[in-house]
Every structure is written in C-alpha cells, then in structure tokens.
C-alpha cells in the first residue's frame, strides 16, 4: 500500500477500565489516507500516544517512512 499514512490519538470519554480511576481509554489509529482504511489500532499504554503509535507501527506496518508535519 502506498500513500500517506496518518496517525491519530483519541481519548474515549465515557469508557473506563473496571477497577481504575475515571481515566478514559486512549487509542492510537493508523489511517491509510488514499485507501480510506484503518490499518491499525492500539491502546496507548499509560495515555502515551507516541509510544502507542510506535508499537502500532512496529506491529502493523512492516515498511514505512516518517515525515513530521508542521
């Protein structure tokens, strides 16, 4: 698959883990923009979206290049 891959973190408000404080779950999505397809989704460990994105890319994408937007 070629094209732009977007990475986006989201907090799922109103969704909580049992037995834990009222801290919403944080997910990281990997989106293939041209194909309009989610190619990966991962729980962000400890609300750390950067680490969650790195783990999702390592697991779901074998070959990628990183370009930081601004």
Low-confidence stretches: none
SSE pattern, N- to C-terminal: EEEH
Q: Helical stretch count? A: 1
Q: What's the overall average pLDDT, rounded?
A: 75
Assign a percent range to the helix content: 10-25%
- Report the end-to-end length measured between terminal Cα atoms: 24 Å
Tell me the overall shape. elongated
Describe the largest sheet.
3 strands, antiparallel
Number of domains: 1
The spatial strand order of the largest sheet comes to 1-2-3
Radius of gyration: 13 Å
Got a strand count? 3
How much of the sequence lies in strands comes to: 25-35%
Structural class, from secondary structure content?
Answer: alpha+beta
Descriptive account of the structure:
There is one protein chain. This protein is of the alpha+beta class. It has one domain. It is built from one helix and three strands; from the N terminus they run βββα. It has one helix spanning 49-60; strands spanning 5-12, 25-32, 37-43. It has a three-stranded antiparallel sheet with strand order 1-2-3, with helices on one face. A hairpin with a 4-residue loop joins strand 2 (25-32) and strand 3 (37-43). The longest helix is centred in the last third of the chain and has 12 residues, at 49-60. It is elongated and about 40 Å long.
Write the topology of this structure.
Elements lengths: L4 E8 L12 E8 L4 E7 L5 H12 L10
Antiparallel strand pairs: 1-2, 2-3
Gist of the model:
By secondary structure, this protein is α+β, with helices and mostly antiparallel strands.
List keywords for this structure.
elongated, 70 residues, alpha+beta, single chain, 17% helix
């Amino acid at each position: 698959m070629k094209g732009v891959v977007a990475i986006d973190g989201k907090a799922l408000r109103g969704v909580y883990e049992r037995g834990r404080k009222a801290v919403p779950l944080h997910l990281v999505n990997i989106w293939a923009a041209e194909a309009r397809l989610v190619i990966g989704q991962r729980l962000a460990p400890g609300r750390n979206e950067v680490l969650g994105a790195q783990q999702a890319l390592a697991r779901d994408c074998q070959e990628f290049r990183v370009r930081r937007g601004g």
